Structures are given as C-alpha cells and as structure tokens.
Amino acid sequence: MADLVGAVSWRVGLTLGLMVCLSLTEGFGLLLLVPLLQLVGLDVQQSSLDGIAQFFSSAFTAIGMRPNLIVVLGLYVLVISMHALLYRSQVILNFTLQHAFVASLRQRLYRSIAEANWLFFSRSRASDFMHLLTTEMERIGEATDHLLYLIATGMVTIPYIVFALRLSAVMTVLVFTCGVGLMWLLRGKTRVARVAGEELSRAMSSLYASVTEHLGGMKTAKSYGAEDRHADLFATLTERVRRTYVHTVRNGTDLNLWLDIGSVLVLSLIVYISFEVLAIRTAEVLLLLFLYARIMPKFSNMLQSYQSFVNLLAAFTGVKQVQVRCEAAAEPRAERVEDFRLRQGIQFGQVSFGYRDNGSAPVVWNLDLIIKTGQTTAIVGPSGAGKSTIADLVTGLLVPDQGRVLVDGIPLSPQRMKTWRDQIGYVSQETFLFHDTVRANLLWARTDASEEEINQALRNAAAADFVSRLHKGLETVLGDRGVLVSAGERQRLALAQALLRRPSLLILDEAMSNVDSENERQIRSAVERLHGTMTILVITHRLSTIRNADVIYVLEQGRLVESGTWDALVAEDNGRFRALCTSQGIECPSAAELLLATDPPLQN
Q: Does the reported pTM lie above 0.85?
C-alpha cells in the first residue's frame, strides 16, 4: 500500500474521498427505506426504527413538504442515481490509479535494471527481466484492482453494519461471530492461494524463458532436427502452468462454495432467532434480512478478493526483490559531469580482474599497457586470454579488482563515466540491430545526426554501396536483429553506427570474427582509412586483420606476454605471436630474412 500511495499519492486521496461519498449515499439510501416502509403500511412505531421515521418526518416538515410516496420515491431515485454516478467515477478512477501504479512500478524496475552494473546484468537471465516487466506487471495490476476493491467494499459496507447494529445489536454480533468463525475455518484456503501464487510466478518465469530461448535458437533447433525436443519441453512447462492455474481456480471455487453455504446458514439462523427467540417485529426483520442479504455477499466478495490478492501478491514480491537487487548492484551515480576529450591516451596500471563467483583465477592479471591517442592498438591472444574483458574495463563496464584504468592520466571514475562513454564507438562480435529501418538503427546511435552525416558514416564503414542496393535504401526494414541482411553487412552497419557517434575511441571487439573474407576485407579497409583520425582499439584472434596496427599486445591466460609492432613480433623466432601466426597459416619470415629485406647486401 505504501508503494501505491508513493506512486500515485493524490489519486489515492481522491479515491478515498469518493469511497466516503459512496458510503454516505449508500447509508442515506438505506435510511430512506424506513419512510418507504411506513408509507406502504408497515408499522415502524414503537421499534428501533421509530427514531429514524421521526427524523425524516421532521426533515420534510422543515422544508415544507409532505412525505408522500411519490416524494420519497423521487428522493430515493435521486440518491441511488447519485450513488451510481459516484460509483462510475470511482471505477474509472480506480482503473486509472491501477494502471498508473503499474506504469510507475514498471518504469522504476526498468530503470533499476538499466542502471545495474554490467557484471550483475551479464550474470542474470534476460528472460527473467522480460517476464517481470510484462506478465508479472499485469498480475500486479490485478492485485491492485483487488486491493482497491477490498477498500471500496469495506467503506461501502460500513453503513450497512451501522444500520444493522441500530436495528439489533444482538443479531449483528451473532452474524459477525459466525462470519469470523467461517473465515477462521477457511484460513487454510488463503495459505494455499499464497503458495499457488508463488508457484505460478515460478512456472510462468520458466515458460517465458523457454519461449525466449527456443524462438531465439529456432534456426539451430531446425538444423539439429530438435524441434520435437523443444516442443516436448515447452509442453511440459505449459502443463505445469495449466496445473497451477487449475489448482488456483479449484481453491477459489472451494472457498466460494463454503462461503455460499455458510452465508445461507447464517441467514436462516437470523430468521429463526429473530422470530422464535427475540420476537422482533416484522418491519425490522425485513430490514435485517435486506441488510444481511447485502452484507453477506459483500463479505464473501471481500474474502474472495483477498484470496486473489494474496495469490497475486507473489508477483509484486518478486518484482520488488529484483528491483532491490538491481539497485544494490547499481553503478555509482555521478555527482557532477566532467567534460573532457581523449587527448593523451589510456593506461592500465597493475590491473587485475576476476569473476569471483566461479572461483577461478583472475581473467586479467597485473596488466600494464598503454593505448596512445591517434594510434591503432591491437590486443590478441587465444580464446579465454582476457581480451574482451579488457574492452569492458576500458569502457568502464567492469571495475578492476586491483590497479587503475587512467584516461589522460586521471582515474576512470563514476564522475567521468557518462561523458567518457559518450566518446566511445563500440562494435562487438554479436551485432544488435532493431527490427526497424536502416535509418532508425543508425539514428539510435545519435539522434541528431544529419542526412549528410549518416551518408558519410556509411561511406566510412564501406556500407554505402550495399545500403543503396536495398529495395528501399535507408528506409529498408532490417528484420528481427537485422536477420534480413548478411552477417558482414550487419557488422558494417554496426561500424557506421559507431562512427556516427564521432567517437574519440573506436573499439572493435572481435568485430570481424564472424564475417567472410570479402566483408573482412571491406571492414579492414574501412578501419585502415580511419587510421590516425581517431584512437582505435582492435581486439581480435584473426591476426590477418591487424597487420597495420601501431602496437600489438599479446595476452596469454590474462597476462601480457609480448608487445610491439607486427614486424618486431614476427621476427621473434620463439615468440608467442609468431606461433599464433603460424597456427593461422600466416607465413612469417625469419629474423635473418627480415634483416635482408630491410638491409640488402652491398653491390661490388
């Protein structure tokens, strides 16, 4: 409730005000039944209703009106019509409040996910976040509706209770005692509803993950002929969800059954005791029956709503738990923003980093290296050497366990992080493109780019020709994750995206590992044309792509083992870089051959 009030505070106040008005009109409508009973001939004198009858008689006399049937019926119609209008307004306001709360909660959760550090995000399952942001949010909306219904029904029930106490306190207390006893007997149903709600959240999360992963891997599944296995697993998870839903509904209908039986038993008890034990007058008994016939369904509905609320509460609990975890893992917020440009370079000073959750050795160990401004720096090594970890450390996605990353001699701190990332163009191995046009995908990198800047970025990325050949050019929709263009074309569009940002640092993280020779040649040529215009960091295991790098760092199991230019590294007969070149079929001349090539013998 505190979260609801915090999200939509003034609407909650307005809703409560409407509920009070509804309660008052409901109570006044009930009071009008007394003069109606009197006018149709039932004796209300010498009973608990006599005071109410006299009040209305005095009120009509004060305004100079004679209380006849038409006047009382007209007033009753007016009050009930006003109640109906208020109820309509309350329903609309409740619906608005419910969805405003869900929208606020969804936005807060998404922001907390987006602001969590990369290490936390990479260890989480994306489908779990998607499930919370969609299905579980809808369940929270339903829970909010049930909560508001509980409050509204409770407020409207108050006049009935007060009127019933005025008619017969003994009977009212008896009814409430029976009702409390019935609720106590059915308390186990509420516990079942809570457990079923938690199980449903888990089952739906597993189903959502299955759908996301299977649809994403459908090409592989078809290639392996594994469609039946996927379908069987999906059927198992679907059956689990079905059983949970059926169990929830069966529990709810059991509750409704016992409530209906209990209600009719209580009403029968009222009639018997009223006539046979307390000898209550006929008019009072009729009113009591009317009141209890209205009160008991309301209590029944309130109990069912409470059970539904408890069942759906697991969704809210799950969302809040994930939000708390995300906020605990949030990147530090910058207290101020420093505007700076990369002018000197990036330096790693004794940097170590490890993914401590897997208990393995550090991925990067005691690393010292310099990325100079305006140069092309390459980092190479076998898989698992820590190359991509270095890229994440450079962008600030990861924070060193030991040592420092310096930009222009200043530590890469949270205060500088946003400005620093604004200067980075990043192209990864797994290119992500939206199911949108080429233009929209490019503008996503920089929304204020002009037409000429877009075209220039495409030319610099060697992508202008193939984009012009697409059937709608820049307005061509690329499909889900860019599936309608080739892998190499996706990489060139990703490079154009990065260049459109006008970065001072361009990072190519295995950007050419999944492309064919022709696309590799085009991307390599595009990158070579950029040489000297910006700082370029190339992370790759394909050594043929870095022949023209100014400096090459060779990593082995997280440690820097060699560094130098291409020629200097291949000249090391027993060097690690030369061995990597040989394993990839790249011919490496010996040191003597290189010396002869650079210093030919003198002619006699």
A: no
